[in-house]
Amino acid sequence: MLSVNELYSIEELRLRAKARLPKAIFDFFDGGAEDEITLNANRQAFKDQFIVPQGLNDVSHVDTSTMILDHFFSFPCAIAPTGAVGFGWRNGDLAIARAASDHHIPYTLSTTATASIEKIARFVPGRLWFQAYVLKDQDFFFKLLQRAYHCDYEAIMITIDLPVGGKRERDLRNHFSVPFKFTSRNLSDFATRPRWAIPMLLGGIPKFENLVGMRNTYHQDANQTSSVGKYYDPSFDWDALKRVRDYWTRKLIVKGVQSPIDAQRLVELGVDAIVVSNHGGRQLDGAQATLRALPAILKIVDGKIPVFVDGGIRRGSDIFKALAMGAQGTLIGRATLYGALAGGNEGANRALDILQDEFKRTMQLSGMRTIGEIHHYGTYLLANK
């Protein structure tokens, strides 16, 4: 079998992960909500944008770095929060976090990670953000923010597109629960992947380390993949977000923005950055692709705060297209996830190597030498399908 360093695209890493994992586990990470219209639309939106290169520019030296939120990025990406990575690769959260540190970009730890806030801070020397789901247990929620603050996380990311869980039909058909259990129903699926199953049996099923001690236990609901509807707070509103803004004195990023109206209110409320996101197509199926939502949001934000975009990014050229649209940066979720699921830290590093190399190559082939030049020429660098 080829090593992950002999795989040359994110899709090849995805296929390696698929071959390594039981179907139910792979589908949990790979799938979206309902008919997966939004999941597929995210990817298609990038495919529908073509690049218009400019020639006769000296591109012998290209600088992929940028400054966002007063910090250096080696290229305009941060790692998106991804929950439950340890279900697919033991210590997978740590593997991705270390890869981000190696590439000098921020890593965002999910509330539902299988590594704790403290563990990531202890073992990862790089820049850390913490993604916070708003919990019904408000005392516990603010304790999470305190823990992130004391561990020197430089930003929190509040997710606003998950008042209830999406209907993820792959998980329902696979009888997949979170956290999963070894049962007679799934044993035959798990047994087909001994390289995955044996470490899980020997080491035990990973836990959501950040949620240990919360009043409500995480259990399966008959109508949802998880108990997310019982777990998170669907009453979270603008007043509640303002309380978070007043409480948290460092950078506050809001993820899950799809409406220009919301974007304007977030600017007025004083958040430091937003992420145009539809949760990777895992929540509201039928929501528009993030790249299509981006222009209207950028117009109303008008440069007042940085705007990131995620969803469907599988190539370095996709990052280029997002920046040409006007985004300051991108969040990478499944791309590095596939790398980690395929080969742990080595796979996550390979995924970021691929994206960074492709992004630099796209800049050179397009005649762009800096991120500033991409933003200067903007949509003149793009043509619609």
Report on the structure:
This protein is of the alpha/beta class and 385 residues long. It has one domain: TIM Barrel. The protein is built from 16 helices and twelve strands. The protein has helices at residues 10-20, 23-30, 37-47, 92-102, 117-123, 138-150, 169-173, 187-191, 194-203, 228-231, 238-247, 260-269, 290-301, 316-325, 334-366, 371-377, and strands at 49-51, 66-68, 71-73, 77-79, 107-109, 128-132, 155-159, 251-257, 273-276, 307-309, 329-332, 382-384. The chain has an eight-stranded parallel β-sheet with strand order 4-11-10-9-8-7-6-5. α6 (138-150) links the parallel β6 and β7 (155-159).
Structural topology:
Blueprint: H1 10-20, H2 23-30, H3 37-47, E1 49-51, E2 66-68, E3 71-73, E4 77-79, H4 92-102, E5 107-109, H5 117-123, E6 128-132, H6 138-150, E7 155-159, H7 169-173, H8 187-191, H9 194-203, H10 228-231, H11 238-247, E8 251-257, H12 260-269, E9 273-276, H13 290-301, E10 307-309, H14 316-325, E11 329-332, H15 334-366, H16 371-377, E12 382-384
Helix pairs in contact: 1-15, 4-15, 12-13, 14-15, 14-16
How many helical elements? 16
Radius of gyration: 20 Å
CATH architecture: Alpha-Beta Barrel
Query: In percent terms, what proportion of residues is strand?
Result: 5-15%
What is the end-to-end distance?
A: 38 Å
Task: List unreliable stretches of 5+ residues.
Answer: 218-225
The biggest sheet amounts to:
8 strands, parallel
| Average pLDDT for all residues | 94
Active site: 279
Keywords: Flavoprotein, FMN, Oxidoreductase
Binding site for glyoxylate: 133, 168, 279, 282
Protein name: (S)-mandelate dehydrogenase
